[in-house]
Amino acid sequence: MTDRRFVYLDYHATTPVDPEVLDAMLPWFTERFGNAASRQYRLGWEALEAVESAREQVAALIGADAKEIVFTSGATESNNLALKGLAEACREKGSHFVTVVTEHKSVLDTLKRLEHDGYDVTYLPVANDGLVDLNRVREAVTTNTIALSVMAANNEIGVLAQLSDLAAIAHEKGALLHTDAVQAVGKVPFNVNKIGVDLASLTAHKFYGPKGVGALYVRRRPRRVSVTPLLDGGGHERGMRSGTLNVPGIVGLGAAASMAAKVLTEESTRLKRLRDRLLKGLQARVPDLVLNGSMQARLPGNLNVSFPGVDGEALLVSLSDDLAVSSGAACTAAEPSYVLKALGRKTELALATLRFGLGRWTTEEDVNFAVARAGEVVTRLRAMSPV
Ligand SMILES: *Cc1c(COP(=O)(O)O)cnc(C)c1O
Q1: Tens digits of per-residue pLDDT, 209-225?
Q2: I need a surface site. Which of 101, 233, 255, 362 has the fewest CB within 10 A?
Q3: What ranges in 63-162 are assigned the alpha helix state H?
Q4: What's the 182 CA to ligand 1 centre distance in angstroms?
Q5: Is 90 assigned a catalytic role?
């Protein structure tokens, strides 16, 4: 077999564990296997110390206090805990949530469940650049609103929300702001106090940590936010998330957070330059390329483009041996993306879309290769079926 080049450009779906993160994790699987709740002997309290130090690292990355970090199994759980937990804890305040149609399924489906349980949810549309209109948010949030939930960065089109404005709008009506910050954390500056956000979800595997571990930031000051737990049990994590702590995973999350903080500025400049090179290269080969989402308010490592007159299925199949890219979110790949539909893209064009996610190991050669391969495939497919 020849050594065929394969380039991974799907960093929004997941990222590899950084070797430095893995090194930090390894001892906690074997010789240092203690339960962080066993405080009677060294093996246990060392595990607890490791967990608390990871809590500091995660808090430092987002400008929070360590006491405001609750460890979870990932962002799906964090989003469920935030929204269902608030719904339950804030029954006296109201019964309404406001969100945006381009949110991740773990937010949308959680709110669907709450609707089924009698809560009201307003789903706001987005403009064709992927941003929500603040005036519409202002109209939607009422004194009956428990929380506004808007993602910090979209996982398909990389669009960055106007979070501080959204926090101000929510707070004017006594509502809280929750954000799914998965794609933003470690990629762009994200500080809970500068933004004024009340709850934020994150997950290690989107910033070079392991899968199956994440966190929920829950504000304590100046106004303490409380969420009712989803799980009953031993009362771990200040009662908000029972269950024996995943010590190696949490240590990995902490190490990944601390690395991300260190390299953020340099990496974001590097990735933005590579992303712009990717865009220019594709535009030179496919002049009628359609860009999806704002280029100003955008993650540095994201590009999302549609190719008119190309069959989406054939496009992905033709690239699959050379490039890991997707047409949208990992969980909903076969149908046209609801995010692109929300931007006004027709089904056919939405299917003929590539989402590129650049990351820590992406090189200029990878970008050149992606441009060449995507360019070739688009030209060939167009020649086969002239539209
Ligand atoms: C990946 C992702 C999630 C889900 O995170 P898990 O840890 O895999 O559950 C939630 N929201 C966004 C925006 C994501 O990209």
Answers
A1: 999 999 999 999 999 99
A2: 233
A3: 75-89, 105-116, 134-140
A4: 6
A5: no
